[in-house]
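ok so I'm stuck.
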Amino acid sequence: MPRRYLHRAALLALLALALALSAGAGVRAQSSADWTALYRPALLPDFWGDMEAWADAPRYTLDLMLAVNAEEAVIGGQATVRYTNRAPSATLETLVFRLYPNLDSFGGEMTVGRVTVAGQTVTPQLDATRSVLTLPLPRPLGYGESVDVALSFRVRVVAGRERLYAQFSYLDEVLALPNAYPLLSVYEAGAGWWEEVAHPQGDAVFSETGFYDVRLTVPADWQVAASGTTLTERDNGDGTRTLHIAAPLMREFAWFASPRYATLSAEQDGVTVRCHYDPARPQAETNAEMALRVTREAVRTYNRAFGRYPFAELDVVQTPNRAAGIEYPGVFVVASPVWDAGDDFFAFVLAHETAHQWWYSLVGNDPVRTPWMDEALAQFSVALYIRAQEGEAAYQAALESYRREYTRYIEQYPDQVIGLPVSAYPQDAYFFMVYQKGPLFYAALADEYGLEALLGALRDYFAAYRYRIAYPEDILSEFERSLDYGVDALFAEWVGVVPVG
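replied:
not stuck anymore, here's the structure
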């Protein structure tokens, strides 16, 4: 099929249409009497009841229109967000949205046009990094009260531009577009809105679980992989098509697009696993089959070890990123060179990123201040995956490989605890402390209390914090209940001081 690109005149016309979308058109999901019906195809039936339990989570309605040519990609959009104040001790006078594409580490450009709050036009404030957007509320928002916000916006991605991990990019005819919309920040009791802007390494995004009702219009010959499940696709007869996507109970919405992608899919425990890959690359079909097999086995392993993955779909996408792999809710990416190799490291990355669907996506944490909470646990999860595939000796060998790399590092550089913020680690130390020493903390817990007891504690932790945000004191409290109150000594030794309360 020929690859068609929209020329600048068509691009501008599409953007004008997108930015003219009314706020009223953005309340599709919020006004339905049975609002959960829209999202059911994206959740396994056993988890439909979770939606009512989380009915006060943020609800996003996104209308996005992609226009692309060889030099740039532009997304015109309208977002309507229903926010409910869930902080019992706080009356809010502002809301804060994050414009992540404007971070230097993302390298994109996002501008916000007209903004209304409860139907009234407001003038937002933008910080010096242009990534923190503060909206004044026409009246204070008390506990349990809700407000609707409508924002028009435009996102631009320059072809060939790479920043940090190229996680937000347009490279080799592949668009990587995580957080390409205004995303609510997290309100923390006693601290206020989270406004961290430094992102020298690691992950930048801290957000709450929400509901996403997305209509995405793209060039007709571009294939899309995204968080959630595509409900319908419509050919518009003008060289574009529109996808309607539902992504319930997800912490953020990410999507990827290319005219090159082919897709391979299969089911595991009721979950459809889809692998999106470039069929023109070396051993494309063989490596896609490997990606599908390893991801399915990882889903099976983690379902049994931690608790079930609740979503109907998990997408794995080959992209030209520079980080080996990057996780998002319901979707993760693997770097093309890693994918092309089709080796043991490819399997390792697939198992690690699948584990992030449990640790980060379902159980959330602050990845800037407490990266160990998801990264170290994802690394330990890979060892559990290896144990399930190859047995006890292979599990111990995986742990020994972590120990060997960590020991080699501290022979030359200072040791540190694993529970520090990203900014406290020199670049290499971040990797060796969080990714190599971090899983050894869980191995020490297994040595002290037994592996089955540790897995029971992790299941309890997952059940207690699924869809929620966990802090170090939360995992400590859960482990004290599940294992022993003496566990705090191991936390102090490995993690560092954990606040109480």
